[in-house]
Amino acid sequence: MAAIVEVQDLIKNYYMGDVTVNVLKGLDLSFEEGDFVSLMGPSGSGKSTLMNILGCLDRPTAGNYYLRDRDVAHMTDNQLSDVRSTYLGFIFQAYNLLPQYTVVENIELPLVYQGVPLDARTKDRCVALAEMVGLGTRLDHRPLQLSGGQQQRVAIARALVNDPQLILADEPTGNLDSRTSVEIMEMLTELNKAGKTIIMVTHENDIAAWSRRVVRLRDGMVESDIRNDKPLGFR
Ligand SMILES: Nc1ncnc2c1ncn2[C@@H]1O[C@H](COP(=O)(O)OP(=O)(O)OP(=O)(O)O)[C@@H](O)[C@H]1O
Ligand SMILES: [Mg+2]
Q: How far apart are the CA of 118 and the centre of ligand 2, in A?
């Protein structure tokens, strides 16, 4: 399979006054198209830092990042935001929904940020996505009127509105009970079966067991990289 993501000698430093915090210390990683990867590792090992770079929300200090064959590490802000809206979907631990907006309006948000005019067609698409994640009867609810699992499903629908090739999820089940976590993992598995590449951060082995590959970071380096021949959702 072709690589969708390739990072080479990726370095990320944060500069705080005189102090340089060297967070990523030369990562070499390649993720295949259609893969379902868990990123694990202790708190502070650099998982979110890596996800932010992969998600084009931040730039590496040095090294290369190719998304398909696009040289992302050296793009301008405008090019990065183009890449974000064309190729990437994001799911966060804290859902990151806007409380004053309804389910459908939250799903529409990435389109708004891209400057896509909202019309009957975009609305139909967002309603269809809400239905796909099982929220067809909650279209006009606001986030606080939904359970945590339902809020995360809105976030999944929102991540899909641009039909991204790569989905980045930073602890998508971190705030959910184990039963609801299983629902979310079933949903991610379905997306992966439909061809989406997924990179997910998790602290939990039970959640990583759903993925096809587990990469562990420690102190900004890859500690281990193991394939899982029997992901939970594929048995
Ligand atoms: N903006 C920043 N400025 C300075 N240091 C930072 C910044 N963001 C992160 N760090 C440092 O980088 C290191 C890695 O942080 P990161 O958030 O990537 O860890 P993580 O693996 O996601 O941890 P967790 O499992 O707790 O979410 C930490 O030591 C953190 O203090
Ligand atoms: Mg983190």
A: 33
Q: Given a cut of 80, is residue 147 above it in pLDDT?
A: yes
Q: In this structure, what CATH number is given to the domain that contains residue 118?
A: 3.40.50.300
Quote the pLDDT of residue 235.
Answer: 81
Task: Tell me how many domains the chain contains.
Answer: 1
**Which structural domain range is residue 105 located in?**
3-234
Its pTM surpasses 0.90: yes
Round to whole Å and give the CA distance between 15 and 194.
41
φ/ψ of residue 87, rounded to 5: -110, -20
pLDDT category at 2 given cuts 50, 70, 90 is: confident
> Which pLDDT score is estimated for 1?
62
Residues flanking ligand 1, CB < 6 Å: 14, 16, 21, 23, 41, 43-49
Contact 109, 97 (CB under 8 A): no
